[in-house]
Amino acid sequence: MSNSSNQANPKNPTFFQTTHHGPRPGEVPKVRSKNAKVTLYKIWSYLKRQRQGLWIVMISTALTSCCALLGPFLIGKTIDKYIIPHQLNGFWLMGSGLLGIYLLGAAFTWLQQYVASGLAQNTVKEMRQDLFEKYQHLPIPFFDQRTHGELMSRTTNDLENVSNTLNQTVVQLISSVFMLVGSVVMMLSLSLWMTLITILIVPLIALITKKITKYTRQYFSEQQKSLGEVNGFVQESISGLRVIKVFGREAKSIEEFREMNERLRIVGLKAQSISGSMGPLMNAMRNLSFVLIAVIGGVFTYHDLITIGIIVSFLNYSNQFSQPINQLANQYNLLQSAIAGAERVFEVLDLESETLGNNEAETDKKISGDVLFDQVHFGYTEDAVVLKNLSFHAFPGQMIALVGPTGAGKTTIINLLTRFYDIQSGTIRIAGEDIRDFEKTFLRKQIGLVLQDAYVFSGTIRENIRYGRLHATDREVEAAARLANADSFIKKLPKGYDTELNAEGSNLSQGQKQLLTIARAVLANPSILILDEATSSVDTRTELHIQEAMKSLMKGRTSFVIAHRLSTIREADVILVINNGEIVEQGSHEELLRKNGVYSNLYNNQLTQGYVS
Fold first, then answer.
1. Is the CB of residue 412 less than 8 Å from the CB of residue 422?
2. Hey, which residues does 425 pair with through a beta bridge?
3. For 325-354, how does the pLDDT look when each residue is reduced to its tens digit (9 = 90+)?
4. Taking each helix axis from N to C terminus, what angle separates 51-78 and 308-349, rounded to the nearest 10 degrees?
5. Domain containing 604 — which CATH number?
6. Do 72 and 174 share a domain, yes or no?
7. How many CA atoms lie within 13 A of 551 on its CB side?
8. Is residue 355 in a domain?
9. Structural domain that includes position 466
10. Structural domain contains residue 358
11. What confidence category does residue 28 fall into, taking pLDDT thresholds of 50, 70 and 90?
């Protein structure tokens, strides 16, 4: 496209305001989590859809916890009743029972981990699916504000972060709750005073956790943002590698990447180092609890207040009590990373989708190609007006050519006709009806679009042509290719129409890809056809083939043709010469030459330079 990228300035934060209600994608997101509770609730809304799996995890976790809690109790009883009195028969019996309990606990642990892994994967699968679907339903202005790599980072890195955290957190949270409650109950049944001593460290752990997580959430959010920037830069650099090399910008690109990479390293180091300090601190708290129990328990035993078996049981329960607290603290810390990633995903999911209408409604209905622009006023931003009260009328079957310098507003006219953007004032009518009264899906099915950058998808040639009409038969696909002058080169390929295309069709020439996009438009059978500099990037011989294909495509259709090579629009019914968002001249090729104005000067300059024959 010739000038859309010029008009839609991705660095302008006010751009999105004129086209979409909701969060502006040009805004720099806040570093810290905006609302962790809301984000966690949204994650839970996905997780709770798998109720059966959650119940299995909860029941198996409860049984695992029961086995773990029963073990220390039986160990204490074994010491007091069988080891100290030297009752070996009872000792072997209790030992066999303990072995059975721990083996059963191991089986339940495997079950909970297996099911929890499935829960995490299914949850993230649904989030990833919703995110991709959201991308399909967001308006074009959103993508003008984002790099492809940054969007890819949300779909891959951020969601993988959520997946890894859920995989560890779901079981840990449920298990920790069971173990905490169960440990306290078991300790209270043995000794009230020893229980109070054990839980003295809880407020201290809560204070430390609160202090650390205050910083980790901030740095994890910065880390995800920096990672998105790095991914965006890498994607942009690889896509534009030829340009980088031809202008000798390798060293500059390396330097820019080094700066981004260093920023990512710094925030990553801060996030991981602060997060990593949680484990050692929690171990110190656990060891402190052990010391208190051992010392005070020894005093109690000396005065015959408790038995040695109870002290042993308490040491085990103390570990089981402090371990869930440590795990909760660590999981909460890890959760900050997932929240940071999830917020970036929900930031997109919460955007207002483009209202398209019913995709299947009136699929085969056609409208006439009568197009009227009446006093159309539009600007991508409030300060930069692109079209100024533009008016023209294209009658059914006419070929309308749009001519003018880059940035004049030619591609903007196409963007408005397809409703990629909506006008600020004026009216655009098709077949006498305001295009805002049409559902966008229906409107766009009436329009065929062939762009300057011919885009093909991975898959076979047949599948790429069928993209214009998914239910078309093989015979209709091949007929469209013949009309587009593509059949001859397709049949020369090793597998013909079943030839697999590489990424972005790199095993085809630019001209061949362009012929495929024309065949795609032929198959779609639109009422209105848009050709946006479709021959500007091919050689003269290929241009002739494409022009022949375009003539077949334009028969009986209203056509809008944007062209810098004026030789391609001599046969246009009306040529609109646009400059600074206004029509400065209009008429046929011969009429405009006789006027000896702007168009005549453009044509004569190209004739002199050999662009026109």
1. no
2. 377
3. 667 666 766 777 788 788 888 888 888 887
4. 160
5. 3.40.50.300
6. yes
7. 10
8. no
9. 371-609
10. no
11. very low
DSSP-assigned beta bridge partners for residue 447: 528
DSSP string, 380-433: SSSS-EEEEEEEEEE-TT-EEEEE--TTSSHHHHHHHHTTSS--SEEEEEETTE
15, 424 Cβ separation under 8 angstroms: no
383, two tokens: 């300060």
210 Rama class: left (phi>0) / alpha (psi -120 to 50) / beta: alpha
Q: Nearest to residue 534, comparing CAs of 524, 525, 521, 523? A: 521
Structure-token pair, residue 428: 């655009």
Count: domains in the chain = 2
C-beta neighbour count of 59 within 10 angstroms: 14
Same domain flag for 282 and 408: no
The domain spanning residue 209 has which CATH number? 1.20.1560.10
User: What are 531's strand-pairing partners?
Assistant: 450, 561
State whether 261 and 322 are in the same domain. Answer: yes
The pLDDT, as a whole number, for residue 15 is 33
Same domain, 177 and 276: yes
Assess if residue 15 is contained within a domain: no
> Do 391 and 316 share a structural domain?
no
Are both 407 and 499 inside the same structural domain? yes
Q: Give the C-alpha distances (Å, rounded to integers) separating 190 from 186, 193, 302, 558, 584.
A: 7, 9, 17, 89, 95
Question: Can you read off the two tokens belonging to residue 569?
Answer: 């629009």
The answer to whether residues 423 and 416 touch, using CB atoms and an 8 Å cutoff, is yes
Q: What is the token pair recorded at 90?
A: 């009872």
What the block records as the tokens of 264 is 């990512």
The backbone torsions φ and ψ at residue 378, rounded to the nearest 5 degrees and listed phi first, read: -155, 145
Per-residue pLDDT reduced to its tens digit, 284-313: 776 777 777 777 777 777 777 777 777 777
What pLDDT is attached to residue 604?
84
Q: 530-576: per-residue pLDDT in tens?
A: 888 766 555 666 667 667 777 777 777 898 988 777 777 888 899 99
Q: Residue 482 and residue 501: Cα distance in Å, rounded? A: 19
Alpha helices in 240-358 (DSSP H): 241-246, 250-276, 278-302, 308-349
How do beta strands 399-403 and 558-562 pair? parallel
Q: Write out the H or E segment, with its range, that includes residue 586.
A: strand 582-587
Domain ends where: 349, 381, 402?
A: 349
Which pair of structure tokens corresponds to residue 458? 């991975």
DSSP three-state, residue 160: helix
Q: β-strand 558-562 against 528-532: which pairing, if any?
A: parallel
Domain membership of residue 545 (yes or no) is: yes
pLDDT digits (tens, 9 = 90+) for 57-84: 888 888 888 888 888 777 777 777 777 7
Shared domain for 433 and 306, answered yes or no, is no
